[in-house]
Amino acid sequence: MLMSVEEAQHRILDGVVPPPPESRSLSELLQEAGRAWPRILAAPLVAEADVPPFANSSMDGFAVRAADVAGAAVRPVTLRVIGRTGAGHLPPGPLEPGTAVQVMTGAPLPAGADAVVPVEWTRMQAGAATVTILQPVRAGSHVRPRGQDMRQGSRVLEAGTRLDPPVLGIAASLGAVRLPVYPRPRVAIVSTGDELVDPGQIPGPGQIRNSNAYALAAAVAQAGGEPRILPPLPDRLPAITAGLAEAARSAAVVVSSGGVSVGDYDFVKPALEQLGRLEFWRVNVKPGKPLAVGHVLDRPFLGLPGNPVSALVTFELFVRPLLLRLQGVQAWQRPRLQLPLGEDLEETSGRRQFLRCRMPERDGHRVVVLTGPQGSAIQTSWLGAEGLADIPAGAGPLRAGTPVTVWWLR
Ligand SMILES: Nc1nc2c(c(=O)[nH]1)N[C@H]1C(S)=C(S)[C@@H](COP(=O)(O)OP(=O)(O)OC[C@H]3O[C@@H](n4cnc5c(N)ncnc54)[C@H](O)[C@@H]3O)O[C@H]1N2
Ligand code: MOO
Ligand SMILES: [Mg+2]
């Protein structure tokens, strides 16, 4: 029986821990903000002060004592204005009964005030020293109390948090200008195949352009890794053995494509056996069955199948979780949706299938439709794909309306 996807994932991730963290400044992290996968925080962040650091107004208006303006429910109340203040300035005060301070949003609340009346609920003659309050407010209204967002001493960020834009904002608010983060794993991309030429070259007879290296390198970058494309290796055992060893010397993870099936020129598995460990190969998945997993010189190694769609599907299922785990992401999976098929699904297989699909809306409900022909060499089946429909082994054909699970590739 072929190994299940989950068992293979478990065996690939088993015992994998991230390398020691490194320290990065907020500005350095900003440089990386454009990356699809941000850095991951390697230690909790505890607030060293309250945020906001002082009670302040959430509206442009008048800081008052709520008790003074309770009567405005019946008739307008007039207060003496003792000053005016904006964000970044200290207010006059303390507020005596019957007085108000004009405040702008973000201005510190004067001592003695417990509420703010928005300017829209007041009337003030230009140049006048009084304001007329037209509506009452409750104590606390339009006031942001000190520590409302983050409390001094509280653990605001847990280790394992993605440094997404709001998180950088939180770190900046707390004055955490350097953060411990996990390194980005360096991933060597090794293509195998006598037929491969660089994309800039004109392929000769029987040759094709090396597309896997570029697709896989982009997928590595999207998963937070640093890809390095190595020159393609010919289909000979000594070349592949030497090439994989070379790759392992300069990278944290080695990913290859091609040469893992049962052909006479498929040398990745024997090379792995010579170099170190071939832990298992073949998984119950279509595309992607002949995946080979092991270690080269103690570096995790994933030998992906050569067919371009198989290479990217196995990247999604097996390489991506490994790269994320190496960056300190413990449990990660794509959001999964249950949606009805929008059309009959003819594809059947004894293996579990991952089919490229879209999820258009029909009559207000999302449905699952395939992107087109699903062969493992049909790269255009990725175009417009929003998800992978996860079809159990042996299922089908399935009729339109049957619910299926989709891994959402957002
Ligand atoms: N008798 C059997 N034959 C095959 C089986 C099987 O079970 N029995 N499995 C098939 C399946 S499924 C897959 S997937 C492929 C896997 O093949 P390999 O990993 O050995 O890859 P290659 O044979 O080297 O190449 C397959 C295919 O992919 C093209 N290729 C390879 N590298 C690249 C690249 N970098 N860029 C673009 N295209 C690439 C290559 O030219 C071949 O067409 O095996 C089946 N066979
Ligand atoms: O597993 Mo292959 O990847 O079906 O094409
Ligand atoms: Mg082959």
Please tag this protein with its features.
Molybdenum Cofactor Biosythetic Enzyme, Chain A; Molybdopterin biosynthesis moeA protein, domain 3; 4 domains; six-stranded mixed beta sheet; 18% helix; binds ligand LQZAQKY5; binds molybdate ion
Structural notes for this entry:
This protein has 410 residues and is of the alpha+beta class. The protein has four domains: 5-14 and 184-326, Molybdenum Cofactor Biosythetic Enzyme, Chain A; 22-51 and 148-181, Molybdopterin biosynthesis moea protein, domain 2 (Alpha-Beta Complex); 56-144, Molybdopterin biosynthesis moea protein, domain 3 (Molybdopterin biosynthesis moeA protein, domain 3, Beta Complex), CATH 2.170.190.11; 336-408, MoeA, C-terminal, domain IV (Beta-clip), CATH 2.40.340.10. 18% of the residues lie in helices and 27% in strands. The protein is built from seven helices and 28 strands. The protein has helices at residues 5-13, 26-31, 165-173, 212-222, 237-249, 268-275, 308-326; strands spanning 22-25, 45-46, 56-57, 61-64, 77-85, 99-103, 115-118, 122-123, 130-133, 143-144, 155-157, 178-181, 186-191, 196-197, 208-209, 226-229, 253-257, 277-281, 285-286, 292-296, 299-304, 336-340, 352-358, 361-362, 365-366, 369-370, 387-391, 403-408. The protein has a six-stranded mixed beta sheet with strand order 7-4-6-5-9-8, with no helix packed on it. A six-stranded mixed beta sheet has the order 16-13-17-21-20-18, sandwiched between helices. Strands 19, 22, 23, 26, 27 and 28 form a six-stranded mixed beta sheet that branches. Strand 8 (122-123) and strand 9 (130-133) form a beta hairpin. Helix 4 packs parallel to helix 7 and helix 5 (237-249) crosses helix 6. It is elongated and about 95 Å long. The two termini are 33 Å apart. The relative contact order is 0.13. The model has no long low-confidence stretch (mean pLDDT 97). Bound molecules: ligand LQZAQKY5, molybdate ion and magnesium ion (MG). Residues 259, 261, 263, 266, 306 line the site of magnesium ion.
